[in-house]
Every structure is written in C-alpha cells, then in structure tokens.
Amino acid sequence: MSSQPVTRSRIEAHSxxxxxxxxxxxxxxxxxxxxxxxxxxxxxxxxxxLGIAMGLNLFWSLVAIVGGCAxxxxxxxxxxxxxxxxxxxQMIQSRPQFGYRGALLVWVVxxxxxxxxxxxxxxxxxxxxxxxxxxxxxxxxxVFTILAMGVALIGYDxxxxxxxxxxxxxxxxxxxxxxxxxWLVPLPAGQFDPHRFVMIxxxxxxxxxxxxxxxxxxxxxxxxxxxxxxxxxxAAFWWTFGGAMLGGVWMMAVGAIAAAALPQDxxxxxxxxxxxxxxxxxxxxxxxxxxAGLITATSLNFYGASLTLLSxxxxxxxxxxxxxxxxxxxVIVTVLASALSFSASKDFMHDYELxxxxxxxxxxxxxAINLVDFYIVRKGHYSIAAIFDPDGIYGRWNARGxxxxxxxxxxxxxxxxxHVFTGPVARALGGADISMLIGLPVSALAYxxxxxxxxxxxxxEVPQHKQSVC
Length: 470
Prior knowledge:
Number of domains: 1
Radius of gyration: 22 Å
CATH class: Mainly Alpha
Number of helices: 21
Shape: globular
Largest sheet: none
Order of helices and strands: HHHHHHHHHHHHHHHHHHHHH
Strand content: under 5%
CATH topology: Hydantoin permease
Structural class: mainly alpha
C-alpha cells in the first residue's frame, strides 16, 4: 500500500467521475420526474406484457408487476441515496468492495447491460415508427439513436429538464388511458378471475419486473451525485422510489392491459388499438409520448455507458473529462448497440425475457454487496481520494467482495430458469425461478462474514463532504 497522500490534482484528473462541492446543485424532488419518466416508456410497456404472453391473466399479471417492481425498486432507491453523499457515479463506488481493478468485473457487465438495453430500445423504436408511419426499420433506428446520443452528449442538466417535462405529459396520458381502459375496453373472459393462478408465468412476470427495476441500480447515483451532500438518505430514497415505482408499475400495467385486450397482436400495435378504443387517435398520442420517453431513457443508457467505458479506460490510463473523450466513448457504445440491434432476431419478447433474466443473475450479488458495504460495513464513510488510488487502502483487488459475489452467484445457479439453461432446483420447481431470493441474502451474509475483520482505518474513512481530499 502506498503511504503517499493522493493529492487534489489526482482527483481532478478524474473529474469525469467526481463532482466537487462547488458544482453541486439541484433539488432532491428532481429525482422523482427523472425516474418516473425514466420508467414510463415503451421498453417498460413491453416488460409488463411478458406474463400475459406466457398465459397469465390480467389480475395476476398486475399483482406480479406491483410485487416485482416493489422488490426491485426498493434496492434501486437505496443506491440513489449514495450519490449525494459521495459525489460519484454508481459504478466507481464499487472500488471499495471489489478493488481498483476488481471493480472491472461489474463495470464490464454494466457496459454490456447498457448496450443490450439500447439495442432493444432501438428495435422497439423501429417497431413503433413502423406501427405509426410505416417507415423502414434501419433508418428509423439510426435517427432514433442519433437523437438519444445528442441528448446524452449535452448531458446531465438537459436529461433532468427533459425528464421533468415528460413526466407531467406522461401523467396526463396514462391517467386518460387508465380511466378509459377501465370503462371502455372489453377484455376476454377470466382476466380478473383470481382462481386462474399459474405459478410459472407469475414468477416470470414478478422477477422480470424486479430485474427491470433493479437494473437501474447500476447508474441511479449518476443522476443524484450533483445534489448537495446535505440531502439525506431518506429524502433521496423516497423521491427515487416514488418516481420509479409509479412510473414502472403504471407503464407495465398499460402493457399488460393492451396484451390482455388484444393477445394476438404485438404489444405496440395492441397499445395503439386499445388507445383508439378509448378515444379515436389517442393510441397514436400514447405511443408518441412513450416514444419520446424511450429517447430520453436511451440517452440515460448512453450517458451511463459513456461514464462506464471511460472509467474502464481510466483504470489503465489517466483520462480527463474533455468533449473529445465523451464523444469517442459515446460513438463506441452507439456502434455496439446499433450492431446488436441490427442483428436482433424477430422473436423480440423471447430475447428480451432472456436479457432480463441475465441482468437479474448478474446484478443481484452486486447490489447486495454494494448496499451492505455502504450502509452496514462502512456506514457511508469512504475516502474519495483512495477510490482513485490504485495503491490505496481499497487495493487493486479486494478478495472479500469478489468471493462474496462468487458465493452469491454460485448459490443462484441451481435456481436459474431460462430457455438456455435451467438449474436442477428450478427444474424440480417446475421451471420456477426464485434465484433473486437466494442471491441477495447469500451475497450479503458472505460479505458481512468476510468483512468482520475489516480494519478500523477502512471503516472510519470520512465522507467526501467532511474530509480534505488532500
């Protein structure tokens, strides 16, 4: 371990990650529209249709959506509270748990997640524009991607302003849809029969909703790190939870209703036709506003992917936050997402289900370890300087975090259930996937046991807003 102090200039060299106190601004309630609009878009709508597509009725689909969103959003919102305290993006905060280089494990996976989501978003965008205007897919994907990349390039403040505007428009649109669907849209018989419970599609919808919400955890602090450090954990948690929970549940419910009303049609076409049953032409309004939400959600992914890619590169060389670096990183992640979207199979829902399952498996151990470290082991006390020091107190490789992650992941494997692989326990349960309920406690307990002898020096590092970074 280096005994030499890490100077302010070293942190400033990593200014792409660190937000100094002088640059902190904004209000904590601004988190609500970011995550409401961040959730209320077309990809969320598709997530809500998964249970119906598997044979679940609307009653149990809605129960699964609410329960799954509550579980995933609960953990996601606790991550949001880390941003104001540390002034750092979410992934950088993994260094104390996994080490300066060990954090590359979750960073690479996070980058894959961003690329995967944006590939599916591009496919959804093309399907939506084809439904609305009959335009060809690839040019639509290209224009959609350029728009989203432009918002991401301008950055944090524009994203916040766009999400606030969209949030209020979405509330009005979703309120009309909900009221209209309740009174004017006929549903097939049995859609609200509580006796028509089917375990496997219920669990698929439940954990798909949980995984979808949990996947925001990898960058939720990216949009709270500019807030003043006086913002408390409770306020950051509830404003994030309220926005993400309401936006996620509401838009997934729209997808479930559309799929239940018109089960033979794709979810995008079904949503439009159900909207038109409420008020002629309203289906187009719904899709246009949800499409705008998809643009800003894709820009969130591009922004996070850019930060993550630059952080990966920064682990091997010192980078400064310049326009050139940001543009290059955005172009790289855009090319990767576009290549994946252009090669996507026609079985969109099947591939999307697999993506959500993989995200659940990968990020369940990480979220448990990151939250236990922040709230229990170190109680929010970190050395910002040491996070940027490869020879600092957190080390290059932290065996405790890596072993706890491995323990949690391996414990989940027998419970995996996808069309690619089904573990023995999941097979014995008839294909039910409860791996998240296993991975969370195993990873958390393993990390706590391994950290029982963490040195007092590491446990008592003072927070950024109370320490000298020199």
